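Before going further, learn to read the protein records used in this course. The integers have meaning only within a learned vocabulary of local backbone shapes. To see the layout at work, look at the sequence and tokens printed below.
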Amino acid sequence: MSLVAAARTCRAVHSTATPLAAAGAHVQTRGYATPAKPAKKTASKFKSNKKSKEDKKRAPRDAGLFRPMSVNNLTHPVFQSEQRMQLQLPLFRPEAITPTAATQALAFPQDESKALKAYGLPTNILVDYLLLSKPCSVVREATVTVLDQLDQAAGSSSKDTRVVFTGKPGCGKSYLLLQAVQYAIQKQWISLYIPRAINLVNSSTAYAYDPRTQTYGQPAFAQQLLKRFVDVNEALVRPLTVQESYPFDERSIGSGAPFLDLISVGLEYQHQAPTVLSALLDELAKQTQYPVLLAIDDFQALYCTSAYRDPFFKTIKAYHLTLPRMLLEFASGKRAFARGAVFGALSSQNTVYRPPLELIEALGLEPDRPSNPYVRREAELIEYAQGLKNFPVPERLTVDEAASIFDVWHQVKALHIPRGDEMFLAKYTEAGGNAREFVKKGLLQTIAM
């Protein structure tokens, strides 16, 4: 069909559709649909829910079954409160720590426990204290022995008292170190407590290379440690003055200036904090008015390879970090306090930072891995481990010590087991006398029963 014929056919279709459209029939065309007419608006028949006068007079909605009952109606033992009870324990005082006080549970005084909040606590002890109503510990025979050594160290150099607590996992090394710190604070010792030394080497804080000392400083950690040190020891440090002059870029600290002026430089200028902390330890080592206790938990981490990396992505040894090196120098006796002691506690919870062979041999421990004369030892670690004394913590609690722990947890209503000798001996036997196993797997697992 040609274009002319197609045009004629289309014209014929349109001409025949005209009468139909006039007759009112609906015919679909190719044109656009006519716009729809808008709907007429009608008044809404919905009535608003207006408050009547009766509603205004109506009393508040009754809670029904959810309304709390009066306490006077809850007389049955089932409804008795299971909230933690306040521990009624004697206070942990130096005069109370005697051989006769062994196996007793003592609560740390509230004033001195502020120091524990400032420095922090090891993770396992922190979990225990979150469940207990107040910080406390059981005095063991090892506690009396360690505190006697601390009293003897008050009049001699810290080079003579460098002790490391060793023992099986969970035997109570961290608790023993915490008791020594608490005792030293009450005996007017200047204390520096580092409860988690692993944080110094696990790459959890910023670091920067210091060309003056050729070590990597950790300014943020050093600044925090200075602040905590002041919070705990401000009353003792306030009358002390420095013996050397320290010219910083921001301002100079002359000889005879107060200790607090020196510390304030590190608190105000974070990049100066590692230098200020080193100078502070030097000044503490020279003064003889107060003994100084340096206590380090996770002690073995200072001898391990850190998780930090140098610009060539090589691992950095812990003794190439400014703060760990300072601590190692006091632990090895290269630097010493005129009066004081250095205490450390090994930890085996983090298997990444296990005690190295050099430290194990220096403490006279049995290696946990094969060793022979052909295994390489680092001369630096051997030097930093010289002169350390091993203090083995007893592996098992005595029955009386375990009974005191059992009573403490029962007083705070943390246990859901009947109180009796049979149950106590069963849990003690299950744990094999280990302190951590006795509390965690013996007692606290009863909460899930």
Q: What stands out?
A: Confidence is low (pLDDT under 50) at residues 10-29. Residues 3-22 form the longest helix (20 residues).
